[in-house]
Specification:
By secondary structure, the chain is mainly beta. It has helices spanning about 20-25, 45-50, 130-135, 410-415; strands at about 5, 10, 55-65, 70-75, 80-85, 90-95, 100-105, 115-125, 145-150, 155-160, 165-170, 185, 190, 195-200, 205-215, 225, 230, 235-240, 250-255, 265, 270-275, 280, 290-295, 305, 310-315, 320-325, 330-335, 335-345, 345-350, 355-360, 365-370, 380, 390, 395-400. Strands 1-7-6-5-4 form a five-stranded antiparallel β-sheet, with no helix packed on it. A five-stranded antiparallel β-sheet has the order 2-3-34-33-32. Strands 8-9-10-11 form a four-stranded antiparallel β-sheet, with no helix packed on it. Strand 18 (about 235-240) and strand 19 (about 250-255) form a beta hairpin.
């Protein structure tokens, strides 16, 4: 197995006290020699511009990218903020304090890298198992646990300790090409393939143990919940399959529009936006209707987002819908709204079409404050973390928090 783990080489720009800055200079001394800082772009909102929204910069970072390397995507996943670059790199940053953690190279040059997925408490050895591991598998107690990040390209899969960057798997898919991001239950990796199939790869021996024909290419990232996987196609087919029954169909539905975004599924239900001008909710185990479909007026414009009380879905030429998760009632629609960047104390922080930040009451939809938030290339979709994350293609990363949260301190960095 080839190791492709890189220690971060970074320059740090941060809003801190003098003592905290001194600690940072020690913490990032390793590998930082010979690197010069680039100035922060002046087009970013100033703190006085953000003051009406009660926001300030909590931390700022400037990652040192290789020559010609640029960020192309950003994702917020649990405790990590990920930047995907055009140099086939996945770079992890500590979302709480902004410390760069690790980066790895995924796949072949200029190959598409899909959205990472997290698996907590995974048990997997670094050594790829053999045939004996299939017939007489070891018990989970034989391996230490770690919190994993799995990321796949069209041709490769990597399993990484998301705290340290230690690589447990760096493998090339054998005889298949992935359609989109796969998912894992900690034992197997499930992914749609370019041959109109979906399959399960056992991670211990790195062997495809079953493959099921769908008849259409999977057009969305996979979703996983309670031993079932969920997937959609551009022809409007949506399937739920049992992973314990070799991926056989449990239930499926056919819609009059394409499915272009991943469904959301958890204990509250399965939620799906379809290009038949409807947003659906089903019971995950049998596909029966949870609440009547919400009729919209345009095409699906991006991933669905879910807060504790509300579903958010941007519909092109229509606006951002806020839907009661429990009963499907439309709370409000914001024509200029595009994405949710945070939900704090009942206020939804919405990015609009002109890159303004709007503070919207989650229940009533009333906008209280509008401030500029331009100057960034990426804005992390977020409904859980108490912060807003932005970044530029050049590798500048920013965290904004309410002023009442205070500033990042030296003590926080040393924990």
């Amino acid at each position: 197995m080839t190791k492709r783990f890189f220690r971060p080489r970074v320059i740090v720009t941060v809003v801190l006290s003098v003592s905290a800055t001194a600690i940072l200079s020690v913490a990032f001394a390793e590998g930082a020699a010979g690197v010069s800082a680039r100035p922060v772009v002046s087009a970013h909102p100033r703190e006085r511009d953000l003051a009406p929204a009660g926001l300030q910069y909590y931390w700022k970072r400037e990652l040192t990218l290789a020559g010609g390397e640029r960020a192309v995507k950003m994702y917020l996943k649990d405790e990590n903020l990920y930047l995907v670059t055009n140099d086939d790199c996945l770079r992890a940053v500590d979302a709480a304090v902004g410390n760069p953690k690790w980066f790895v190279r995924v796949g072949n040059h200029h190959e598409r890298i899909f959205e990472p997925t997290h698996v907590p408490d995974m048990r997997l050895p670094e050594r790829i198992g053999g045939v004996d591991d299939i017939s007489t598998p070891k018990t989970e107690a034989d391996f230490d646990t770690f919190d994993a990040a799995l990321v796949n390209s069209m041709t490769h899969l990597m399993v990484v300790d998301r705290k340290t960057g230690r690589i447990y798997r760096d493998v090339r898919f054998d005889g298949l090409v992935a359609d989109d991001a796969g998912v894992s239950d900690g034992t197997s990796f499930y992914v749609g393939t370019g041959e109109r199939n979906y399959c399960a790869m056992k991670l211990l021996p790195n062997v495809v143990v079953w493959k099921e024909h769908l008849g259409q290419n999977v057009s969305t990232p996979m979703a996983y919940y309670e031993r079932r996987i969920f997937m959609g196609t551009l022809d409007g087919l949506f399937r739920c399959a049992d992973v314990d029954n070799y991926g056989k169909k449990r239930w499926e539905r056919t819609f009059d529009g394409s499915i272009t975004e991943k469904c959301l599924v958890n204990a509250r239900g399965l939620f799906l936006a379809c290009n038949d001008h409807r947003i659906y909710a089903f019971y995950p185990h049998d596909g029966k209707t949870l609440w009547p479909a919400v009729v919209v007026k345009g095409a699906v414009g991006g991933p669905m987002q879910m807060g504790e009380k509300t579903l958010f879905q941007y519909i092109r030429r229509d606006g951002l819908y806020a839907i009661n998760v429990t009963n499907g009632d439309v709370r409000w629609k914001l024509p200029a709204g595009r994405r949710v960047l945070a939900i704090l104390d009942g206020v939804v922080y919405v990015l609009d079409a002109k890159k303004n930040l709007r503070l919207v009451n989650e229940i009533t939809g009333k906008t209280s404050v509008v401030v500029p938030l331009g100057g960034f290339d990426f804005y992390a979709d977020n409904t859980t973390a108490p912060a807003i994350y932005t970044a530029t293609r050049a590798g500048q990363v920013f965290c904004l928090r309410p002023a009442k949260a205070g500033r990042l301190t030296a003590e926080m960095l040393t924990k």
